[in-house]
Amino acid sequence: MRRPLATAAAALALMIAAGASARSARETAPTPEELAKAREAAMIMSVATLARVRAALSGESVKPAVFPARGLAQWAESIPAMFPASTASLTGTRARPEIWSDRAGFEARAAAFTSATRAMVVAAQADDRAALTVAVERTAESCKACHDAYQAPAPDKPAG
Ligand code: HEC
Fold first, then answer.
1. How many CB atoms lie within 10 A of CB 39?
2. Ligand 1 atom with least separation from CA of 36
3. Which among 112, 120, 108, 106 has a CA at the least distance from the CA of 141?
4. Best substitution site from 43, 52, 106, 143 to test ligand 1's pocket, by max atoms within 8 Å of Cβ?
5. pLDDT in tens, 51-80
6. Among 54, 81, 83, 102, whose CB has the most other CB atoms within 10 angstroms?
7. Cβ 63 under 6 angstroms from ligand 1
8. 54 CB under 6 A from ligand 1?
9. How many Å from the N-terminal Cα to the C-terminal Cα in the chain?
10. In this structure, are residues 68 and 49 in contact, taking their beta carbons and an 8 Å threshold?
11. Buried (b) or exposed (e) across 84-107, using 16+ Cβ within 10 A?
12. Tens digits of per-residue pLDDT, 13-50?
């Protein structure tokens, strides 16, 4: 009885030690490549999240839109930090150089996206379908406005 317990405790101690060293090995800032991968993932997930908000418009209450709308609002606030100058020279991303040469313009697009997503949160919390409908359209327009100016077309298809 005692021995298996001791073995388990030793195994646990080893696992904790391994976890601790893995953590300390990652106590560095993300690389530019890691940042680009994370922001691209968040952009892709934004499509599904906005669809989730939109789907709530056909429900009895629009309150289920609060959760996905909050996620988008939080992401919107993070966008400028996800495009630091250290990622400007990466190849294989669709970030246009104008993000850095016209930083004020890019941040204004991100701010418009933040404001539109916050309006979705407020409308969903109030269960206000008409206001949510308007805010969803504003949000979709703010995605497109930023892409038109700062996202390069996909290599295999035209811009959109
Ligand atoms: C402030 C600017 C900005 C806003 C707002 C914005 N995007 Fe993006 N988006 C970009 C940029 C720049 C890229 C290219 C990033 C890269 O390749 O590193 C991008 C890439 C994407 C991609 C392609 C990801 C990939 O690599 O395959 C999708 C999909 C996307 N965005 C969806 C959205 C949706 C949906 C919204 C709104 C809910 C949105 N974006 C809002 C700037 C923005």
1. 19
2. 18
3. 112
4. 43
5. 999 999 999 999 999 999 999 999 999 999
6. 83
7. no
8. no
9. 66
10. yes
11. eeebeeeeebebbeebbeeeeebe
12. 665 666 655 556 677 889 999 999 999 999 999 999 99
